[in-house]
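Morning, I've got a small favour to ask if you have a moment. You're getting the sequence in one-letter code plus the fold written as C-alpha coordinates. Thanks so much in advance, here it is:

===
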Amino acid sequence: MVSAAESLRTEAASREKLRAEVEVHRVSATENKKWNEKDWASIDARSSFQLGTDGKSLFVAYRTNQPQLLRNSAAEFPYAFTQGGGLDLMMRAQGASDNRQVFVGDSRLFVTQRNGRLLAVLYRQKAERAGNRVTFASPVGEVTFDDVQDVTDRIKLVVNRGAYEISAPLDLLGIDPSPGKTYRGDVGMVLSDGVRAQARVYWHNKTDSMTADVPSEARLNPSQWGIFRF
Protein backbone atom coordinates (compact mmCIF):
# COMPACT_ATOMS: atom_id res chain seq x y z
CA MET A 1 0.00 0.00 0.00
CA VAL A 2 2.87 2.38 0.83
CA SER A 3 4.51 1.57 -2.50
CA ALA A 4 1.25 2.18 -4.38
CA ALA A 5 0.71 5.46 -2.53
CA GLU A 6 4.18 6.66 -3.54
CA SER A 7 3.40 6.29 -7.24
CA LEU A 8 0.14 8.19 -6.75
CA ARG A 9 1.98 10.98 -4.94
CA THR A 10 4.50 11.18 -7.77
CA GLU A 11 1.71 11.37 -10.36
CA ALA A 12 -0.11 14.07 -8.37
CA ALA A 13 3.10 16.09 -8.01
CA SER A 14 3.69 15.83 -11.75
CA ARG A 15 0.19 17.13 -12.49
CA GLU A 16 0.66 19.98 -10.02
CA LYS A 17 3.96 20.98 -11.65
CA LEU A 18 2.26 20.98 -15.06
CA ARG A 19 -0.38 23.35 -13.71
CA ALA A 20 2.24 25.66 -12.19
CA GLU A 21 4.93 25.62 -14.87
CA VAL A 22 5.28 24.94 -18.60
CA GLU A 23 8.36 24.64 -20.75
CA VAL A 24 8.94 26.80 -23.81
CA HIS A 25 10.27 24.28 -26.33
CA ARG A 26 12.80 25.03 -29.03
CA VAL A 27 10.96 24.72 -32.36
CA SER A 28 11.46 25.68 -35.98
CA ALA A 29 9.71 28.62 -37.57
CA THR A 30 7.90 26.38 -40.09
CA GLU A 31 4.12 26.15 -40.04
CA ASN A 32 4.08 22.36 -39.58
CA LYS A 33 5.73 22.10 -36.17
CA LYS A 34 6.16 18.80 -34.35
CA TRP A 35 4.60 19.34 -30.92
CA ASN A 36 5.28 16.66 -28.29
CA GLU A 37 2.05 14.78 -27.59
CA LYS A 38 2.91 14.50 -23.87
CA ASP A 39 3.51 18.21 -23.28
CA TRP A 40 0.05 19.69 -23.81
CA ALA A 41 -1.03 21.71 -20.75
CA SER A 42 -4.74 21.93 -20.02
CA ILE A 43 -6.74 25.13 -20.31
CA ASP A 44 -10.00 23.29 -19.62
CA ALA A 45 -11.32 19.77 -20.09
CA ARG A 46 -11.34 20.09 -23.89
CA SER A 47 -8.62 22.63 -24.63
CA SER A 48 -4.85 22.65 -24.19
CA PHE A 49 -1.72 24.47 -25.36
CA GLN A 50 2.04 24.32 -25.86
CA LEU A 51 4.70 27.04 -26.09
CA GLY A 52 7.70 27.20 -28.40
CA THR A 53 10.38 29.59 -29.60
CA ASP A 54 12.89 29.77 -32.42
CA GLY A 55 14.84 32.47 -30.59
CA LYS A 56 13.03 35.28 -32.39
CA SER A 57 9.33 34.61 -31.82
CA LEU A 58 7.09 33.00 -29.23
CA PHE A 59 4.71 30.39 -30.64
CA VAL A 60 1.52 29.38 -28.85
CA ALA A 61 -0.28 26.29 -30.17
CA TYR A 62 -3.86 25.62 -29.06
CA ARG A 63 -5.93 22.46 -29.36
CA THR A 64 -9.64 23.13 -28.81
CA ASN A 65 -13.11 21.89 -29.68
CA GLN A 66 -14.01 25.42 -30.82
CA PRO A 67 -13.71 25.75 -34.63
CA GLN A 68 -15.61 29.09 -34.49
CA LEU A 69 -13.63 30.45 -31.53
CA LEU A 70 -12.32 33.56 -33.29
CA ARG A 71 -15.61 35.15 -34.34
CA ASN A 72 -15.55 38.78 -33.21
CA SER A 73 -17.64 41.87 -33.91
CA ALA A 74 -15.57 44.62 -32.25
CA ALA A 75 -16.10 48.00 -33.91
CA GLU A 76 -13.20 49.49 -31.90
CA PHE A 77 -10.10 47.33 -31.53
CA PRO A 78 -9.41 48.09 -27.81
CA TYR A 79 -12.71 46.37 -26.96
CA ALA A 80 -12.03 43.19 -28.92
CA PHE A 81 -11.90 41.07 -25.75
CA THR A 82 -15.51 42.04 -24.92
CA GLN A 83 -17.07 41.71 -28.37
CA GLY A 84 -16.34 38.11 -29.28
CA GLY A 85 -13.97 35.19 -28.87
CA GLY A 86 -10.22 35.05 -29.11
CA LEU A 87 -6.88 33.68 -27.94
CA ASP A 88 -5.25 35.18 -24.86
CA LEU A 89 -1.56 35.37 -23.94
CA MET A 90 -0.37 37.10 -20.75
CA MET A 91 3.31 37.88 -20.06
CA ARG A 92 5.39 39.52 -17.32
CA ALA A 93 8.54 40.75 -19.04
CA GLN A 94 10.33 41.45 -15.74
CA GLY A 95 10.52 37.75 -14.94
CA ALA A 96 8.94 35.35 -12.48
CA SER A 97 7.98 37.75 -9.68
CA ASP A 98 4.57 37.00 -8.15
CA ASN A 99 4.12 40.59 -6.94
CA ARG A 100 0.45 41.48 -7.23
CA GLN A 101 1.27 45.00 -8.44
CA VAL A 102 1.15 45.56 -12.20
CA PHE A 103 4.60 46.52 -13.53
CA VAL A 104 5.86 48.12 -16.72
CA GLY A 105 6.30 45.20 -19.10
CA ASP A 106 3.22 43.26 -17.98
CA SER A 107 1.11 42.74 -21.09
CA ARG A 108 -1.80 40.93 -22.66
CA LEU A 109 -1.93 39.88 -26.31
CA PHE A 110 -5.42 39.16 -27.61
CA VAL A 111 -5.73 37.55 -31.03
CA THR A 112 -9.01 37.14 -32.92
CA GLN A 113 -10.63 37.55 -36.33
CA ARG A 114 -12.90 40.46 -37.18
CA ASN A 115 -14.94 39.99 -40.33
CA GLY A 116 -12.78 36.98 -41.09
CA ARG A 117 -9.52 38.94 -40.90
CA LEU A 118 -6.80 38.77 -38.26
CA LEU A 119 -6.93 41.30 -35.42
CA ALA A 120 -4.27 41.33 -32.69
CA VAL A 121 -4.26 43.82 -29.80
CA LEU A 122 -1.49 44.37 -27.24
CA TYR A 123 -2.56 45.77 -23.86
CA ARG A 124 -0.07 47.38 -21.46
CA GLN A 125 -1.65 48.52 -18.21
CA LYS A 126 1.61 50.28 -17.29
CA ALA A 127 4.08 51.68 -19.82
CA GLU A 128 7.25 53.76 -19.58
CA ARG A 129 5.69 56.20 -21.99
CA ALA A 130 1.96 56.50 -22.40
CA GLY A 131 0.81 55.72 -25.92
CA ASN A 132 -2.79 55.06 -26.90
CA ARG A 133 -4.23 55.43 -23.39
CA VAL A 134 -7.62 53.76 -22.90
CA THR A 135 -9.89 53.75 -19.84
CA PHE A 136 -12.23 50.80 -19.46
CA ALA A 137 -15.16 51.84 -17.26
CA SER A 138 -18.43 50.49 -15.91
CA PRO A 139 -20.94 51.65 -13.27
CA VAL A 140 -18.88 49.88 -10.59
CA GLY A 141 -15.31 50.79 -11.50
CA GLU A 142 -12.66 51.60 -14.08
CA VAL A 143 -9.10 50.78 -15.06
CA THR A 144 -6.77 52.80 -17.32
CA PHE A 145 -4.24 51.20 -19.64
CA ASP A 146 -1.27 53.36 -20.57
CA ASP A 147 -1.02 51.84 -24.03
CA VAL A 148 -3.36 49.74 -26.19
CA GLN A 149 -2.04 49.03 -29.66
CA ASP A 150 -3.28 47.26 -32.78
CA VAL A 151 -0.31 44.96 -33.52
CA THR A 152 -1.94 42.89 -36.25
CA ASP A 153 0.95 43.51 -38.63
CA ARG A 154 3.39 41.85 -36.20
CA ILE A 155 1.38 38.70 -35.42
CA LYS A 156 0.96 35.53 -37.46
CA LEU A 157 -1.97 33.16 -37.09
CA VAL A 158 -2.52 29.64 -38.42
CA VAL A 159 -6.03 28.17 -38.16
CA ASN A 160 -6.97 24.54 -38.74
CA ARG A 161 -10.54 24.01 -37.55
CA GLY A 162 -10.26 23.94 -33.76
CA ALA A 163 -6.45 24.11 -33.76
CA TYR A 164 -4.70 27.47 -33.69
CA GLU A 165 -1.13 28.71 -33.62
CA ILE A 166 -0.05 32.29 -33.02
CA SER A 167 3.43 33.73 -33.46
CA ALA A 168 4.53 36.92 -31.69
CA PRO A 169 7.98 38.56 -31.89
CA LEU A 170 9.86 38.26 -28.61
CA ASP A 171 10.89 41.91 -28.79
CA LEU A 172 7.22 42.89 -28.89
CA LEU A 173 6.72 41.06 -25.60
CA GLY A 174 10.04 42.18 -24.13
CA ILE A 175 11.22 38.60 -23.59
CA ASP A 176 14.77 37.18 -23.53
CA PRO A 177 14.68 33.54 -24.75
CA SER A 178 18.00 32.50 -23.19
CA PRO A 179 17.89 28.96 -21.72
CA GLY A 180 16.96 29.00 -18.05
CA LYS A 181 15.03 32.27 -18.17
CA THR A 182 11.64 32.18 -16.42
CA TYR A 183 8.67 34.49 -16.77
CA ARG A 184 5.20 34.82 -15.30
CA GLY A 185 2.58 34.13 -17.94
CA ASP A 186 -0.76 32.59 -18.77
CA VAL A 187 -2.59 31.23 -21.79
CA GLY A 188 -6.32 31.08 -22.29
CA MET A 189 -9.36 31.78 -24.41
CA VAL A 190 -12.39 34.02 -24.51
CA LEU A 191 -15.46 32.10 -25.62
CA SER A 192 -18.41 33.89 -27.21
CA ASP A 193 -21.40 33.80 -29.52
CA GLY A 194 -19.49 36.02 -31.96
CA VAL A 195 -21.03 39.20 -30.55
CA ARG A 196 -20.35 39.16 -26.81
CA ALA A 197 -17.82 37.41 -24.59
CA GLN A 198 -19.56 34.64 -22.66
CA ALA A 199 -16.74 32.86 -20.80
CA ARG A 200 -13.03 33.21 -20.05
CA VAL A 201 -10.86 30.17 -19.35
CA TYR A 202 -7.15 30.08 -18.53
CA TRP A 203 -4.45 27.51 -17.89
CA HIS A 204 -3.31 28.91 -14.54
CA ASN A 205 -5.58 31.76 -13.45
CA LYS A 206 -8.88 30.12 -12.55
CA THR A 207 -10.25 33.17 -10.70
CA ASP A 208 -10.64 35.60 -13.63
CA SER A 209 -13.82 34.45 -15.35
CA MET A 210 -15.90 37.67 -15.31
CA THR A 211 -17.57 38.59 -18.61
CA ALA A 212 -20.17 41.08 -17.31
CA ASP A 213 -17.90 43.97 -16.25
CA VAL A 214 -15.44 45.49 -18.74
CA PRO A 215 -12.83 46.77 -16.21
CA SER A 216 -12.72 43.35 -14.56
CA GLU A 217 -12.33 41.69 -17.96
CA ALA A 218 -9.48 44.05 -18.85
CA ARG A 219 -7.49 44.25 -15.61
CA LEU A 220 -4.21 42.29 -15.46
CA ASN A 221 -3.60 39.98 -12.49
CA PRO A 222 0.04 38.82 -12.88
CA SER A 223 0.26 37.21 -9.44
CA GLN A 224 -2.29 34.66 -10.70
CA TRP A 225 -0.18 33.65 -13.70
CA GLY A 226 2.01 30.55 -13.87
CA ILE A 227 5.64 30.11 -14.95
CA PHE A 228 6.99 29.89 -18.51
CA ARG A 229 10.46 28.31 -18.49
CA PHE A 230 12.77 28.83 -21.47
In short: The domain at 2-229 is CATH 2.60.40.1190 (Immunoglobulin-like).
